[in-house]
């Protein structure tokens, strides 16, 4: 496939596919319709594990069906639970954790991620990362909660100690103010 820098989602997928190896453990913090969960299940292979979270039962069901159809359901543990409670269920270390913030496309816009709970989940994910593990977050400014999350994430991730994490913020400069953005934090080797 041609290497085409075209979106925050493309960047996130590119980073995840480099960071994950067969046998690894990964987290999908916002399961939605399961596209990211399926992508992670394929990357970790038969011996890997993917923990996925969403607060909506419909999201969990859609994801379960998608993984079943693809023959990879046994690689995943699906939780109808807020990602702020991931630490209770995930056995680390994890090689990658992905957040695709906002609401379910085609779903109820009121059920959106919110900074208060996103922050708790991001803190847990950072603690669960193993050496060189990556946290990848797609954020969607352009609506009030998305703007708030993007601003708070920028401040929070900028303050992470550089001795422990390398942090990147990808933004398409000519794509307009509401364009999705990608944040990445990689834990240092040791
Ligand atoms: C943009 S969608 C995710 C899309 C998904 N990654 C995919 O591949 O289809 C965001 C999801 O976050 C979920 N969400 C909102 N608050 C949450 C929370 N506290 N914990 C986990 N998921 C949450 C929403 O229900 C929604 O399904």
List the helices and strands and how they pair.
Elements: H1 8-19, E1 25-28, H2 35-44, E2 49-54, H3 57-70, E3 76-80, E4 94-100, H4 115-128, E5 129-139, H5 144-158, E6 165-170, E7 181-187
Parallel strand pairs: 1-2, 1-4, 2-3, 4-5
Antiparallel strand pairs: 5-7, 6-7
Helix pairs in contact: 2-3
The structure holds S-adenosylmethionine.
S-adenosylmethionine binds next to helix 2 and strand 2.
- The portion of residues forming beta strands comes to 15-25%
Total strands: the figure is 7
Number of helices: 5
Global Rg: 15 Å
Q: Predict the CATH topology.
A: Rossmann fold
Task: Give the rounded overall mean pLDDT.
Answer: 96
How much helical structure, as a percent, in the residues?
Answer: 25-40%
Biggest sheet overview: 7 strands, mixed
Bound molecules: S-adenosylmethionine
**pLDDT below 50 for ≥5 consecutive residues: which ranges?**
none
Oligomer: single chain
CATH superfamily: Vaccinia Virus protein VP39
Based on secondary structure, the structural category is: alpha/beta
Can you identify the CATH class?
Answer: Alpha Beta
Shape: globular
Domain unit count: 1
Q: Give the helices and strands as they follow along the chain.
A: HEHEHEEHEHEE
Based on the structure given, which CATH architecture is correct? 3-Layer(aba) Sandwich
Distance between the termini: 35 Å
């Amino acid at each position: 496939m041609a290497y085409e820098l075209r979106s925050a989602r493309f960047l996130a997928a590119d980073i995840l596919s480099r960071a994950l190896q067969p046998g690894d453990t990964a987290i999908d913090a916002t399961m939605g319709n399961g596209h990211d969960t399926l992508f992670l299940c394929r990357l970790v292979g038969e011996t890997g594990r993917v923990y996925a979270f969403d607060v909506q039962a419909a999201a969990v069901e859609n994801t379960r069906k998608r993984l079943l159809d693809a023959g990879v359901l046994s690689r995943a543990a699906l939780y109808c639970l807020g990602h702020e409670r991931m630490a209770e269920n995930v056995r680390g270390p994890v090689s990658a954790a992905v957040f695709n913030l906002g609401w379910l496309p085609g779903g109820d816009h009121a059920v959106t991620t919110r900074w208060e709970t996103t922050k708790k989940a991001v803190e847990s994910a950072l603690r669960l990362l193993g050496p060189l593990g990556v946290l990848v977050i797609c954020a969607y400014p352009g609506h009030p909660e998305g703007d708030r999350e993007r601003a708070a994430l920028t401040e929070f991730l900028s303050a992470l100690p550089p001795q422990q994490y390398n942090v990147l913020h990808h933004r398409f400069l000519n794509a307009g103010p509401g364009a999705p953005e990608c944040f990445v934090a990689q834990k240092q080797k040791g």
